[in-house]
Design brief:
The chain is mainly alpha-helical and 120 residues long. Helix content is 81%, strand content 0%. The protein starts with a helix and ends with a helix.
Length: 120
């Protein structure tokens, strides 16, 4: 009977995993917003949201693939950490993993910027 109903811990783990993915998306948006605001965009919020979906800067197909792979793997690892940990370590592990993953993604995108797009 217990197995048929499912454990409440499993539901909590799924909620934590979804929350971790939301945190990851929020951190990604905040970094994109900050970059747009520093570049002097008139509408940094709209441009940052657009950047998460489709970047305006020209990237080679390989760079775009690697960038998206880093982004998706970071989100997956963040969700996996949230799903597999519990208690107070969960909060710290999820936050730390999300910050590191988004940092790696931002660092890769920064390092692969072409000189023409850095001046914008």
């Amino acid at each position: 009977m217990y197995l048929a109903r499912g454990a409440s811990d499993d539901a909590d783990a799924w909620l934590w995993a979804l929350g971790a993915l939301a945190l990851y998306a929020l951190i990604s948006y905040a970094l994109a917003y900050r970059a747009r605001a520093r570049r002097g965009s008139r509408h940094p919020a709209h441009d940052a949201l657009h950047d998460l979906k489709d970047r305006e800067e020209p990237q080679t197909p390989r760079q775009r693939l690697v960038s998206r792979a880093i982004m998706l793997c970071g989100g997956a690892v963040t969700g996996l950490v949230a799903f597999t940990t519990s208690g107070v370590p969960r909060v710290l592990a999820v936050a730390g993993t999300a910050v590191v993953a988004v940092g790696l993604w931002a660092y890769y995108d920064h390092r692969t910027e072409t000189p023409a797009t850095q001046g914008r």
